[in-house]
């Protein structure tokens, strides 16, 4: 049986964004032999829990929203976009289930930020303009390169496909992880030292999040395909594990 992957709808209000982006995540998951399962942001906590129970992995997609800075103890800055409480609620419920049951988690762009804040980390609310264009957008296939730690899980995944010192990535974000959350570690950064990937430190729980969008380059970039393939393989091999105290 193919593993089922829970994917929250990216945004509760911006349907046009959802229509353009959600199919890319679903297609990448399907091409790797898994079944994407949409999580409506209108679902009750009980309904989200029922979906989560039926899934073997969680993918947190990108979003045009920004995490509410109050969640990490800061006042909102003028550059910070509106929060999406419905998306945040879905992410938190899915993450709680995934961490309780040790299900694999894959965060992308906003998904990285959501994961990091849920794990008590903080965010840089706006990246200052500089040599690296982090807001290049979907039309720019390679915005910059990142350096990946070779001894990390991420390094072992993408190192087979690309140069860890110059991994090419796209970029559509203006925020990033600042203080890394509990049980996470930074494993990639851009040349201007912005954190570009984090992963879980628990060897028995596969948690990965990247700041770029591998779903956009799934067909063209071997490293992007490898990320999705590894995530789906983790979900395929998933077996419920006893709850650990955090």
Could you explain the architecture of this structure?
The protein has 246 residues and is α/β, with parallel strands linked by helices. The chain has a single domain (4-236), classed as Rossmann fold, CATH 3.40.50. Helix content is 30%, strand content 19%. The chain contains six helices and eleven strands. The protein has helices spanning 15-31, 45-53, 85-101, 110-118, 153-158, 222-236; strands at residues 4-8, 35-39, 57-60, 105-108, 123-124, 144-148, 167-169, 176-177, 184-190, 195-200, 207-210. Strand 9 and strand 10 form a beta hairpin. Helix 3 packs across helix 4 (110-118). The longest helix is centred in the N-terminal third of the chain and has 17 residues, at 15-31.
What proportion of the residues form beta strands (DSSP E)? 15-25%
Unreliably modeled segments: none
Summed up, the domain count is 1
Helix/strand-derived category reads alpha/beta
Reading the helices and strands in chain order gives EHEHEHEHEEHEEEEEH
Instruction: Let me know the CATH homologous superfamily.
Output: Class I glutamine amidotransferase (GATase) domain
Number of helices: 6
Please compute the radius of gyration using only Cα atoms.
16 Å
| CATH C-level class | Alpha Beta
Globular, elongated, flat, extended or rod-shaped: what is the shape? globular
Sheet having the most strands: 9 strands, mixed
Number of strands: 11
Strand arrangement across the biggest beta sheet: 2-1-3-4-11-10-9-6-7
Measure the end-to-end span. 31 Å
Average the pLDDT over all residues and give the rounded result.
96
CATH architecture label name: 3-Layer(aba) Sandwich
What is the name of the CATH topology?
A: Rossmann fold
Q: Multimeric state of these chains? A: single chain
* Relative helix content: 25-40%
